[in-house]
Amino acid sequence: MKELLKKHYGIDVLDFFSIGQWQGFKTKRNIGFIAAVSHIDHKELYELYEMSRYLLMTSERKAASFLLTVNGDLTAEHNGTRYAVFQIPQQTKRLNITSLGKELSFFHEVGRRLPFTPVHSNRIGQWRNLWARRIDQMEQFWSIQIASKPHHAFDKLFIESFPYYLGLGENAIQYLADTELDDRPLPVDSGTICHQRFTRETWENAFSLPVDFVFDHGGRDIAECLRYDFLTGRQTIDELFLAEYDRTSPLSSFFWRLVFSRLLFPVHYFECVENYYLAEEEERDSLQFQMEKILQTSSQYEQFLSSFSSMIYLRKKQIVLPALTWL
Length: 327
Fold this sequence. Notes:
Number of strands: 8
CATH superfamily of the largest domain: Aminoglycoside phosphotransferase (APH), C-terminal lobe
CATH architecture of the largest domain: Alpha-Beta Complex
């Protein structure tokens, strides 16, 4: 990576480090990050670049800035992979969260005022089609796995568990379809800058890399934060987080129903399966352990979903989410 940074960016690196999935580096004045972006279309990447510029111009603290190459390009290629490089000021520190719901709500308000409508990074209104495509692809792969003799314990876990998660995914698609038919969006349901997978740690880092942005409904970030809470051991809904967000940007019933439909879709299961079969051999044991944990806590996740739809906070606001009888 030293060669990449020197040749294409004219950067002399003092040291490399890692934060989560990101590889970072230090120079005399700044801290930077390198991200592989071969999977992101150039037009989408340019929209992410414009989002980050907008956030920086509005004094929003949550965006790192793109570094352009010495030729003025967004990316550089090294050993057959395209990379983007980002910079944050060296004095940037992890932040103490005073009110996650309030702060996230303000961030989404800023994002809704984005002066252009993204096309290539836009996921508004696309959840149903994206989910259906994902289910179809995995169902085809599942059929292939059944036809071939399972070789590993993970194969058996996947073959036995997929019908349940297929049903859960189909329920989520139907719930979302009913929401779009029966309810109506309000201004708070407009598209905004979101994160691919928002967590509390995302916010504590004091910055986000633009490659983690996506233009979507704000309910995406709320649902993924609650999902991550569950997966990391919190089995009750954080009603304070939701109340703080709602007090800052009052939510429509359409918004609440979209959050629930996204929680209902088992993206954590799908990602675990996909990651396992794409992983190197040495990474597969941890993914098998992750799968075992997902399956062991499936009943608790149903209770988690049920507790969301029956929250006291919703009853106080006289919002009734359509019930799922099997929960």
